[in-house]
């Protein structure tokens, strides 16, 4: 799914733009890299904004759903990981080939 970056209209915050993209995300969710391209921020900044967005959504009765990262080499799934960023390596096989987590709003 590749869409061209269109800057958000004035008055829309980065977190508001992230919320809008996640609300319309497919069931497979959107990765931090996809979100950074859609919203126009760096991939590293996405995790910080998502942490704050998660708190705002919880207060409003919605929830940020995290589809966990998975090791490509051995299939290990990072189910208990609390951080929203991509893991550096697999604790089972030490591989760095990791599919990043995906996010959506439910």
Automatic annotation (TrEMBL):
Residues forming coiled coils: none
Top-rank lineage group of the source organism: Bacteria
Pfam families, sorted: PF0610-like_N, Zn_ribbon_PF0610
InterPro entries in alphabetical order: PF0610-like, PF0610-like_wHTH_N, PF0610-like_Zn_ribbon_C, WH_DNA-bd_sf
PF0610-like winged HTH N-terminal domain mapped to chain residues: 27-62
Domain PF0610-like rubredoxin-like zinc beta-ribbon C-terminal as annotated: residue spans: 68-105
Cross-referenced PANTHER family: PTHR40663, TRANSCRIPTIONAL REGULATOR
Entry protein name: Transcriptional regulator
Species this chain originates from: Cystobacter fuscus (strain ATCC 25194 / DSM 2262 / NBRC 100088 / M29)
């Amino acid at each position: 799914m590749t869409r061209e970056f269109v800057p958000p209209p004035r008055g829309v915050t980065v977190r508001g733009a992230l919320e809008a993209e996640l609300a319309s995300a497919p069931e497979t969710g959107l990765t931090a890299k996809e979100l950074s391209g859609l919203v126009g921020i760096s991939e590293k900044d996405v995790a910080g904004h998502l942490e704050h967005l998660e708190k705002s959504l919880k207060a409003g009765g919605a929830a940020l759903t995290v589809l966990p990262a998975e090791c490509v080499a051995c299939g290990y799934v990072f189910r208990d990981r609390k951080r929203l960023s991509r893991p550096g390596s697999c604790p089972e096989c030490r591989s760095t080939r990791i599919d990043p987590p995906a996010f959506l709003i439910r």
